[in-house]
Specification:
Blueprint lengths: L8 E7 L9 E2 L2 E2 L5 E6 L5 E7 L7 E7 L3 E6 L16 E8 L7 E8 L6 E7 L4 E5 L5 H5 L5 E7 L4 E9 L7 E7 L2 E2 L7 E8 L8 E11 L5 E9 L2 E9 L3 E6 H4 L7 E8 L4 E10 L8 E6 L1 E2 L4
Antiparallel strand pairs: 1-12, 1-15, 2-3, 4-7, 5-6, 8-11, 8-13, 9-10, 9-12, 13-14, 16-21, 16-24, 17-20, 17-22, 18-19, 18-21, 22-23
């Protein structure tokens, strides 16, 4: 019989802090907020310029520039080398871990263990006071120092008393970090893990067609929090029959199946997904929608925690 789920151990395997996405550009410009300085030189000879930038905390930075004669020149401040400090880098993608302590008298001590695709896990502690909804901004230091940016990661939360976690993600247009274009939340899976080796979800889809106004990507996150590696298989149930993808998931590692890169399921096909492994795992789906031919910020995003399937 499976163990009774506790309220002291939780899993979430689709986490991501977006920032300077490699290759996410439009007309060669990185989509993380752009800033230009217009310089007009009305004379008939080139002008040498000294540009000094001043900051609240950092020391000034000086750049040597030039302005051609009889011309207005745009200086791309976002492309200066060395790069100017950017106050918006911490705000271009939010990943918030909330811990709610329902007890009116005692605090809760929670250990958050973070799992990655290609490096060992790290852990830190958080204490939620009685009746507190404690917010942990994973996209801000010091937690961002653990998870980095543009790096998928999974979470395991264990605690000395019952606690209720929730993860909220927001992704933003590059030049307006105050208004999310895409946002969703996930309630993590309640542990402890015992025999959850098979997981399913019904709504699988990705597409990349110039005939459609948007493009969609789908990632399947497979978290193995155990001390031993596991062999896993992903089955895509399409109208033409099942298609199989095999993978290895290391001990205490996260594996991410980027469906749009597999070449296994055609664009625009609808499918259900089953993930089987030789050890207990947690599976979660993420789908992102982008404007076809437009700037590559996330127009829409959603996450689905798959359901464990006990085959009897």
């Amino acid at each position: 019989m499976p163990a009774e789920p506790s309220q002291r151990e939780w899993y979430c395997c689709d986490n991501y802090v977006s920032d300077r996405h490699p290759g996410l550009e439009r007309d060669g410009h990185p989509l993380t907020g752009l800033d230009w300085l217009a310089v007009l030189n009305p004379g008939d000879v080139a002008a040498a310029l000294g540009l000094t930038a001043y900051f609240v905390e950092a020391p000034p930075a000086t750049y040597e520039l030039s302005a051609p004669p009889a011309r207005s020149t745009l200086v791309e401040l976002h492309r200066l080398e060395p790069a100017l400090p950017r106050s918006d880098e911490n705000l271009l993608g939010w990943d918030l871990l909330y811990l709610f302590n329902p007890d009116a008298r005692e605090p809760v001590t929670a250990t958050v263990r973070v799992y990655f695709e290609d490096r060992p896990p790290v852990a830190f502690e958080r204490v939620a006071q009685p009746w507190e909804k404690l917010r942990t901004p994973m996209h801000l230091p010091p937690y961002r120092d653990h998870v980095g940016v543009n790096t998928p990661y999974g979470l395991r939360v264990t605690s000395d008393r019952p606690v209720f976690p929730h993860v909220t993600r927001a992704e933003y247009e590059s030049w307006d970090e105050h208004n999310p274009t895409a946002m969703y939340g996930i309630t993590p899976y309640r542990g402890p893990l015992v025999d959850e080796t098979t997981w399913c979800y019904a709504d699988g889809f990705w597409q990349d067609s110039l005939e459609h106004p948007w493009r969609e990507e789908e990632w399947i996150h497979v978290l193995n929090p155990g001390a031993s590696p596991t062999r896993a298989s992903v089955t895509f149930f399409t109208e033409d029959g099942p298609r199989e993808h095999a993978l290895d998931v290391g001990a205490e590692r996260l594996a991410v199946v980027r469906v749009e890169r597999l070449g296994l399921v055609p664009s625009g096909a609808h499918y259900g997904v089953r993930v089987r492994a030789t050890a207990p795992i947690v599976v979660q789906q993420t789908r992102r929608t982008f404007e076809q031919g437009g700037a590559r910020w996330t127009r829409s995003t959603s996450g689905t925690l798959a359901a464990p399937w006990r085959e009897r």
